[in-house]
TrEMBL record:
Cofactor or coenzyme needed: heme
Family: Belongs to the cytochrome P450 family.
PANTHER family, per database record: CYTOCHROME P450
Gene Ontology terms for molecular function: heme binding; iron ion binding; monooxygenase activity; oxidoreductase activity, acting on paired donors, with incorporation or reduction of molecular oxygen
Entry-linked Pfam families: p450 (PF00067)
Designated name of the protein: Cytochrome P450
Residues reported to bind heme: C508
Organism: Corynascus novoguineensis
Amino acid sequence: MGLLVEYGHYILTATVLAVLVHAVSANRKSIRRNGEPLRNPPDTLPLVGNGLKFLQSRWELFSWFDKCQRQFGYETVALRVPTLPPGVLIHDPRNLDFVFKNEGLFTKGDFVKQRSWALFGNGIINADGDFWKLQRKAGSAFLNTANLRVLTEVALPQYLSETVEYLQQNVDKGTVDLQHVFHEITTKLMGKMAYNMEMHADDEFSKCFDYASGATAERFQNPLWRITELFTGSKLRKSIRVIKDFGRRIVTSAVHDRNEQKSKREPDGPSDESSKLDQISGSLIQSLLEAIGNEETVADAALTYLSAGRDTTGQALTWTLYLLLQHPSAVARIRQEVQDLLQSQQQLHPQDSPSHPTTTKPPTTKETTKPFPLGIDPTLLTPAALPYTTAVFHEALRLFPPIPFEIRQTQADTTLPDGTFLPRYSVLVWCLWAMQRSRLTWGADADEFRPERFLVPASREEGEGKGGQEGEEEQEEGKGMKTPRAVRFALGKTSAEFPVFYGGARACLGRKMAEAIAVQVIPTVLVATGVRLEGAWEGGRRSQTSLTLPMEGGLPVLVKK
Ligand code: HEM
C-alpha cells in the first residue's frame, strides 16, 4: 500500500504548512542550466511538485523514474518535493562520473544521514573522513584474496551442501521460498566469516532489520516522516532497539573471542581446511575493534557491513533465479557450461573423475562437512570458468539492482558536466532501476533479459571497444580449463554507465565476494541438486519497500525430481 493511503490525513495538513514555510524561506540561488530552470518530469503538479509521486509505493515510484528516463533521455530534470531542499534527477553517465570523481562534494549529507542514522549510525555507509577510512581499511583487509579463497573453498561449499540437502528433502512437498534459502546462505556466511557468530535468516534480529530497512526507506519517500512517525513509529523504534542490542552482542562476542585468543596463543602449524575457516572467522569485527576502539561505533560498523554483504547478495541471487526460471534456454546454457567444465576437468585429471556424476570427494576434511554435490571441486566454479553464468548474474543485476536508487547532497555550489548549476545542499538523485534500462546506454533491447550482452569472443583484444575502461572486468584463465573458451565475460561499461556497484573511491568493496558467491550458488542450485525448480508464483514479482531490493512475498518454487 502506498504511503499516501496509510498516512493521508497527517500528510495533507502538514503539507499545506510545509509549502507555506518553504515558500517563505526559499533559497535565492536556484538550480539552472544555461540560465534557464530545468524541465519538470511527467506528472509534476503546482505547489506539491513531485511530492505525491514520492508517496506512492516504491514499485510505482520506480516506474515513474523509468518513465522520466524514457521521456528525457540523458537530460537532467528538476525534482521538487515540498519541505525538501531543491533537487535534480540525473540520467547522464557523464554527470554520474563527475559525482564518483568528486565524492567530497557529493556526500550523503544531512539529507540521507538524518533518515538513516537510527539504523546505521556511523557505519561505513554514512561515515565520512577518518571514520570512513578506518572502516574501509578494515573491510579491505577482511575481503582480501586469501579470505575469499577460504570463502569459496571451505565456507560456501559447506553451506551449499546444506542447501542442496534441504532442496532434496523438499522434492514434491509444496513450495520452498528461494529468497529465504539464499538469505540463509548469505547470513550464515557473513555471520561466520565476518563475526565468528552463528546467524540465521529468521533470527529476530534479521526480521527486525528487514522491517527497519523498509521503514527507513519510507523516510526517503515521505518528507513528513518526523511527524508521521510520532503516531506510527513504535514498531520501528522497537526494531531499532533489537538491532542495536544485536550490534552490542556482536561486539561483546568479539571481545570475548579476542581475550580467548590471547590466552591460547598457539604456535602456527599445518592446518586443515576447516581450521582455515576458524582462523579467519571474525576477522572483520576484530579489524574494526582494532581500528576504531569505540564499541558503539564498532557495533554500527558491524551492522552496516552485515547489511551491505548479505542482503544485497541474497536478493541479487533471488532476482537471478526469478529471471532464469522464466528463461529455460538460459538454464540449459548454464547446464551446458557446467558440463563442459566437468568434461575439461576430467580430461585434465582423468584419475580424479568421479564414478558417479552426483557424488564426490568432500572439499574439506572437517567431519561435519557434507560432500559438495557437483562431482567436482567447487573451487572450479569461478567467474573465469563460467562466463555465461557470470553474464547471467550481471544481467540480473542490471534489471534488478539490489541498491535501486541513490541520493547525494552537494556540499558546495557546483556545475555538472551537462551545465546544470546546483547550489550548495541541493539533492541529487539517480535511479539505477531506470538508468540500467536506458536504451541510450544499453540499446533497443534494454528491457530484455539478454545475458549475451556481457559476452565477447575470447580472442578479442584487450582494450577493444569499451574494454579497458574503468569497470571492465578481465578474467584470469579459469582453474581446470583445458582449452580457451569461445567467449569471455566483459562488462563493457564504465561504472557510471552501469553503477550497480557504485564507483570512484567509495565503490563497493564486496563485488568480488558477491560474484564468487553467485557463480557457485547458481549452478549448484540449478544443476547439482539433481532436482528441477519450477516457479510457483502468479503474475510478476515486485520489490517490497526497503533500502535494498527484497522480493515482496519471497520467491516460491516447487522442487521436482
Ligand atoms: C550483488 C551484491 C552487491 C551489490 C549490488 C552492492 C552494491 C553496492 C553499492 C551500490 C554501494 C554504494 C552504496 C552507497 O554508499 O550508497 C555499495 C557499497 C558497499 N558495499 Fe556493496 N554491494 C554488493 C555486495 C557487497 C558485499 C558482499 C559486501 C561485503 C561485505 C559489500 C560491501 C560494501 C561496502 C563495505 C560498501 C561501502 C563502501 C564505502 O562507502 O566505501 N557489498 N555496494
